[in-house]
Amino acid sequence: MEVKATPILEYHTITTLYEASLNGCVSTLNTLIQRNPIILNRVSLSPFSETPLHMASLLGHLEFCEALVKRKPSLVSETDSEGRVPLHLACAEGHTKVVKSLLLTNPDVCYAVDKDDMLPLHLAAIRGRLGAIQELTRARPDSIHRITDDGSVLHLCVRYNHLEALKFFVQSATMNQQFLLAKDKKGNTVLHLAVKLKQIKTIKYLLTVPEMRTAARALNEAGLTNFEVLERGPSDFITQKIEHMLTEAGVQSITAQQGSSSSPRIIPTQPPQESKRRKLWETLWLEYLQYRPNWIEEKRGSLMVVATVIATMTFQSVISPPGGVWQEDTFSGGLNCSSSGICKAGTAVLAYDLTEEGYVTFATFNTISFFSSLCVVVMLVSGLRLDNKPMMWMLITALFLALTSMSHTYVSAQRLVTPHHLAHKVDTMNMSLSTIWIIITGVVLLFHVLHLVIFCAKKFQVKLLCSSNQLPVFSGSD
């Protein structure tokens, strides 16, 4: 008697198949196919938007993918609710071996586009999956020439800052100048976009490509050269570095600074002859010493943890001071209880020492560190933007005050609990470490002051330039 499959039994079988694709279990797949040889054909009737091959490709289960495409190769070209084939998912996750296996079955899926008009190559470029990119371009080299609203794959590499992937694409299309100079929907070339995003390493590489040096003289749809794109953003050291790089490439912007309304033009210039010492300092400043105005916003969570730990440590030092507390009232004990009348239970033992100034010093620095860390916590949880200069300086000051006071708290506590015959050695060690601390904080403070001086000098230079051109300068009181 033949047993007919019920809808519930069939749904359970399909669900088991998808669970096997999640785990990459080939043995379960083989068992299901033995029980129901047409189970893979029934996948299209299931309520799931993805096929088991989508799931296995996303998770990188190579053996499971190979088993699926061996039994039903058409799964390679099946799309999900986003219009993506399994190759899209494997490329996005960078599963190079899975990508290679899918391409061996059907290399034409390189041309499959999802609902956002993205090829698998575009997703690989967005994520910088170099291995997947190499397999895709090897299978269908002409797929790199497809242009979307966001531009070419070169634009995607620059937009998401994947320099190695960008180098591979440029080397693959060296002879195709039209592709290298392609523009996005705003008329920006790859170099325009790199300048706008201030990606110095990317710009430096692009300017080594002859075709890209030609692009340095191009205008976007807004009629702006790379110089004008750069001038639209805030002026800082990175901006000056990029201007220098463009100038060395033989490009200089001539804008209408004398009131002319003509469009900006460009002329080739000779690279300026600068000393090696100046270039060395520029590289040192740019790579290691430059002040980043958004670092506090990036590290808000870490700063919160640091401030909370400092507050906890200093609070614990109050309720458990060095030397402990008196467990009961006493009138003697070898300390200064007689002159104070009584040593109260719960008070610090060393507060009654003959050298009570040491305990006062400890308590003072500990309190300063505690309240400074609380101020940091308040500023971090206030929800205010911290990338403006006043808030940033306040937060930096509070952090330095908390850390410095905590270091003095440690030295004071150590001095209180150190025996007199070892006090000289401990003081010598603390003096050396304190000198190192002062040097470090002094260097950091110097660079902050230097950044402030540079900022003020730039503002003053702009004001002089506007005055020399008889342009109005607006102040905050106007």
UniProtKB/TrEMBL annotation:
<keyword id="KW-0472">Membrane</keyword>
<keyword id="KW-1133">Transmembrane helix</keyword>
<keyword id="KW-0812">Transmembrane</keyword>
<dbReference type="InterPro" id="IPR002110">
    <property type="entry name" value="Ankyrin_rpt"/>
</dbReference>
<keyword id="KW-0040">ANK repeat</keyword>
<feature type="transmembrane region" description="Helical">
    <location>
        <begin position="359"/>
        <end position="381"/>
    </location>
</feature>
<feature type="domain" description="PGG">
    <location>
        <begin position="294"/>
        <end position="414"/>
    </location>
</feature>
<feature type="transmembrane region" description="Helical">
    <location>
        <begin position="393"/>
        <end position="411"/>
    </location>
</feature>
<dbReference type="InterPro" id="IPR036770">
    <property type="entry name" value="Ankyrin_rpt-contain_sf"/>
</dbReference>
<dbReference type="Pfam" id="PF12796">
    <property type="entry name" value="Ank_2"/>
</dbReference>
<keyword id="KW-0677">Repeat</keyword>
<dbReference type="InterPro" id="IPR026961">
    <property type="entry name" value="PGG_dom"/>
</dbReference>
<feature type="region of interest" description="Disordered">
    <location>
        <begin position="253"/>
        <end position="273"/>
    </location>
</feature>
<feature type="transmembrane region" description="Helical">
    <location>
        <begin position="431"/>
        <end position="455"/>
    </location>
</feature>
<feature type="repeat" description="ANK">
    <location>
        <begin position="82"/>
        <end position="109"/>
    </location>
</feature>
<protein>
    <recommendedName>
        <fullName>PGG domain-containing protein</fullName>
    </recommendedName>
</protein>
<dbReference type="Pfam" id="PF13962">
    <property type="entry name" value="PGG"/>
</dbReference>
<feature type="compositionally biased region" description="Polar residues">
    <location>
        <begin position="253"/>
        <end position="264"/>
    </location>
</feature>
<dbReference type="GO" id="GO:0005886">
    <property type="term" value="C:plasma membrane"/>
</dbReference>
